Each structure stands twice: as C-alpha cells, then as structure tokens.
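Researcher: Please generate the 3D structure of the following complex. Treat every line as part of one assembly.
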Amino acid sequence: MSDEKQDAIDQKLQDLDSDGIDRRGFLKCMAWAGTGLVWTVSGGIPVSRAFGQSKVRSTGTGGDFSFVQISDSHMGFNKPANPDVAATLQAAINKINGLATQPEFLLHTGDISHLSKPEEFDNVDQILKGASAKDIFFVPGEHDVIDDDGKLYLERYGKGAKGSGWYSFDKRGVHFIGLVNVVNLKAGGLGLLGPEQLEWMRDDVKSLTSSTPIVVFAHIPLWSVYPQWGWGTDDSAQALAYLKKFGSVTVLNGHIHQIMQKVEGQVTFHTAMSTGFPMPQPGKAAGPGPLTVPAEQLRSLLGITDVNYVRGHHALAIVDSTLE
Amino acid sequence: MPRRTVWVVGVATPVMIAIGLLLARSSVAANTERSSTATVEVTIDNFSFNPQTLTVAVGTAVTWTNRDDIPHTVTSDDGVFKSKARDTDEKFSYTFDKAGTYPYHCSIHPKMTGQIVVH
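Model: Done. Output below.
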C-alpha cells in the first residue's frame, strides 16, 4: 500500500474515532484493487486500515473478534482468466489460516460454484475443510442456483434458512443477516430480494435495539454500483429502510470481483475480491465478463476480506488482502 | 453483372409470387414444412444478444450460441421456452411455429434482453 493511501485511511479512522460519525458523509465509491486494507467498525461505520495494523487495533480493546469474507470462488471455471480456481481458493484458505488474529467464522458471499454442479460444490467443501475456522455461512450467487432454482444449493447450504436461503444469526452482540438476491430475477432487472424476504427482514430486526451492530451480507451489491452491468439490487432501498434506526450497518457483497466501498450515513457498503478471477472496472470493458491478466498479476487481483469487530468502537475494521 | 442480376431478380420475383400463391392455397402442413428448414443464428457476446431483435418467418428455428466465458440462459419472459445454462460455445435452439413477439432474457443476468418477432 502506498503511503498516500495509508495516510488517507489513517485520517478516516481519526474522523470516525472522534465521535463515530463520518463528517464527510457520503464518500464516493473507491476502488482499492490489488491492495491490502483493514476495516474497523467504529460507531457503526467500518473504517479501512492497513492490513498489517489490524492485530494491534483488534487486541487493544478486548472482547473483540473477527471473521473473514470470501466470495466468488466459481469452482468449475477453467477459462484463460484463471485455469485453476481450486488453487486460488486454496491460496485464500492458506491466507486466512495465516492471519495473525484467527477469524471465528467465514462468510462466503456466493458464486461458490460456476455451474451449480454437485462436484463443484464438493470441491469447494473439500478445500474449505482445510480452514482453521470451522463455521462457514453462505449465501448463494446466481451461479449457485442455475437450472434448478437453487434446489441443490438449499439442500447443501440452506439448512434452517427461510425461503430461497435467507437467515440471520448473532455473534457476540453483532446481528448478521444473510440475504438472497439472485433468484426469480425479472427481465431487464437487477438483483432482487422480493416481498417475502423483505417482510421477513423487517420482522427480523424489529426487536433489536438501535445500538446493535448490523452486518448484512448478500451476493449482488445492495447499492447501485453499475446498473448497466446489473451491479445493483432493484429493491435494496426497502431493505436499507428497515435498517435506518441502527447506528452501525455494514453491508458486505461480492459479485463484481473487485473491491469497492461507499459510506452513506450510518451504512458502509463494501464488496470483496473474488478468489476465482478478476473482472473489469465498471464500464471499462464491453461487458462484465472475466478479465484475463498476465499470469503473474492474477493473484494480486484475487483475495479475501478480514472483518474485525472491536468492542467499544462502532465501526468494524475491514482489511482486504490479495493472494500475493 | 449488376444488369444481369437485376434481370434475374426481375424474372424471379413474379415466379416466386406465383409459387407463393399456389402454396398459400395448399395445406398448412406443406407451408410449415417449407419454412422449418430455415435456421437463424443469434450470438451471445459480452453479455448481450446479437441481434437484440430478430424477425423471422413462422417455422424458423433460431439457434443461440454463447460465445462468452460465462454461462447464460435463453429464457422466454412469458414461459414459452427456457434453455438450460449454456456455457462457452454451447447452443440452444427453438422453432417458432406461431406468429407473435417473443421477448426473452438471460435468467442469470436479466439485464440481457432480446426479442424474436415471428410473422
């Protein structure tokens, strides 16, 4: 990471730590491709920090924990953009197992498989068994629900989930909500949550106090990254409306195979790199397909997202690191 | 050569109209058979259907070929036809036996839309 970027991150942390409110309010969406970033959630707003500093921060205040988000493994993909997605998923797991602070659990934000085939899911499961963190929470990507409306996905990953696979759980006072926005998609539309899931979500958060930190995870971004390429969710505004009372909302997505973030009020949106293959920046290619880069650059565009919860801070600390 | 081509077309057109009129008087079955030999191609490149709007005669088989590195589907908006996911270079065909407009999309990437106009 460049000194300039580090300075910008440190400044943002200071802004947030002063009173938990990002005075700059809306931040333009920023791409941090190929870098290592740490996020700290403080006052409900995740703050990005240098990867190497996460340990200091997370062990300083006690009662903390971290989890890691991985995304878009696309097991079964074998095109030039990455002929060996199993190897890069394995590299991601090795990276996670080597983290200074071990995550309590993993989140996989979808596109586990490339074509929803049983053997693709099997291969991923086999590699994930090597993770030191044993709890893994999934939401499906559109590649996981191909041809069978997600039946196989639900059989394998949806135990205890509602509808097409949505659910929530609590970890150390943080409320996690896994949403599905990749089924029953409408012609010409974007990702879709649907009325049944939205109703469930409204009820799910109703009894929570406004000081409860919320982490929402779903495959397709819940903010409008680039609708021309389908990078958004048609009814995400309704979901976010249910979260307005909360002081800390972190939204973690995949799908776009690159890091982007936006802070809007109390809500921080963040997308993770893929472990499978990179994709072009919005509008920088004819379409949102796999991006083929020189082999020696590939692992600098793939990676994991380490999220640290620091008690006493409203913001979660989020660190993105590449597979290099 | 251009002059000769015009002459051929000039002769051929009335002949074809005559054949058409004859066929129109014959059975519907014969008409369908005649059209069913036609095949028209749609390609999928960079997350779009090309051409996006295709006009064909009744009885035409349309074949879609996915040339992306990502799977797509060909899914009728009205439930008339639905392909399995088509990976790179895989094809899907559907024969349109009734006149009408058939909007469709990729169910995985619904921003991808197209239509077949059959008359």
